[in-house]
């Protein structure tokens, strides 16, 4: 997502350099990788069948809403530069990058907290046989660790 943000910034703000804009255009085509990685990350870091389906549904609904709203920012009266569309792309990719960084930090700190509690012996481990199949959410299953 950071590379895609850089590419979008090159497209939006490098008006005087056609080579930089072309490089941004080529780099922008790695953006689907970010979506695939996000979907994989959300799927592997959510436990519990119902919660996993709900999170995936929210993600895909947000993706579809973005695909509906995004083209509306490219207004015909702004042609051929489409500054509104370019700025909206920069803002959306910046917010996305910040949210992913926050999510990574959140997962990392929760793993660290659970490991510290386990090392101290203060973490209450439920006595459930085959806990991985108990359909507990990631918050309920104290043995669950987020994938970074």
Automatic annotation (TrEMBL):
Sorted alphabetically, the keyword list is: Membrane, Signal, Transmembrane, Transmembrane helix, Transport
What is the membrane topology noted in the UniProt record heading this document? Multi-pass membrane protein
Q: Per the record's keyword annotation, is Signal included, yes or no?
A: yes
Major place of localization? Answer: membrane
The GO terms describing molecular function are: transmembrane transporter activity
Q: Does the keyword Repeat apply?
A: no
Kindly give the InterPro entries that the UniProt entry links to this protein.
MFS_trans_sf
Its Gene Ontology cellular component terms are: membrane
Q: Where is the signal peptide?
A: 1-20
Q: Where in the cell is it found?
A: Membrane
Provide the transmembrane region boundaries: 26-45, 57-75, 87-105
For this entry, the protein name equals Allantoate permease
